[in-house]
Amino acid sequence: MAKYFDVHPDNPQPRTINAVADSIRNGALVAYPTDSCYALGSRIGSRDGISRIRAIRDLDDRHHFTLMCANFAQLGQLVHIDNDVFRAVKASTPGAYTFILPGTKEVPRQLLHPKKKTVGVRIPDHVVTQALLAELGEPLLSSTLLLPDEAEPLTQGWEIKERLDHQVDAVLDSGECGTEPTTVVDFSSGEPEIVRRGAGDTARFE
């Protein structure tokens, strides 16, 4: 059964955040809130986490995982980014955007797109997510908590706990956080290509 952690959305209790971060360090797969919707998260190097996320979401090997970063220092270690792209990404973060860029050697091979060698990165604008990333001290491997054959992501922590009780190890609940996934922008060719229109305004990339 998944452990259930309830935190304040604006002032998350440090003890609770510490407990969730410790569980991630020990290999746990967690469901947690972001500034767009709930996500599944595990350590970057966890093969078990990757396979469990793929199983829950029924994903193939062409799916772009997202590396959730606390800041640009972390993001810059994971992807190759030139000055023009840097300015565009910088102007849009933190926020509900995922950017697809060529991965560096810091990214495990199994997380990269098999042909393009790209990966998704983002910096969230959510107090609880940022608290978790700060305590964890490293980026978090993530994927939107959208179940197969369902049109919208799950939005309530208690419902996630109920439905995925034996598939995740922990649920971090800070209240409802919306149903619209991030806007996804592919910069792997140097020019912005909008892959998915979501919570982030696309005007600056068109």
By secondary-structure content and strand pairing, the structural class works out as alpha/beta
Largest sheet geometry = 10 strands, mixed
**What is the CA–CA distance across the termini?**
45 Å
Q: Give the overall average pLDDT.
A: 94
Order of helices and strands: EHEEHEHHEEHEHEEE
pLDDT < 50 runs, ≥5 residues: none
Beta-strand percentage? 15-25%
H/I helix tally: 6
Pfam families: Sua5_yciO_yrdC (PF01300)
Keywords: Nucleotidyltransferase, Transferase
Protein name: L-threonylcarbamoyladenylate synthase
GO molecular function: L-threonylcarbamoyladenylate synthase
Question: What's the layout of helices and strands?
Answer:
Blueprint: E1 3-6, H1 14-25, E2 30-32, E3 39-43, H2 47-57, E4 66-68, H3 72-78, H4 83-91, E5 97-102, E6 118-122, H5 127-136, E7 140-144, H6 157-163, E8 170-173, E9 183-186, E10 193-196
Parallel strand pairs: 1-8, 2-8, 4-6, 5-9
Antiparallel strand pairs: 2-3, 3-7, 4-7, 5-6, 9-10
Protein name: L-threonylcarbamoyladenylate synthase
GO molecular function: L-threonylcarbamoyladenylate synthase
EC number: 2.7.7.87
Overview of this protein structure:
This protein has 206 residues and is of the alpha/beta class. It has six helices and ten strands; from the N terminus they run βαββαβααββαβαβββ. β9 (183-186) and β10 (193-196) form a beta hairpin. The protein starts with a strand and ends in a 10-residue tail after the last strand.
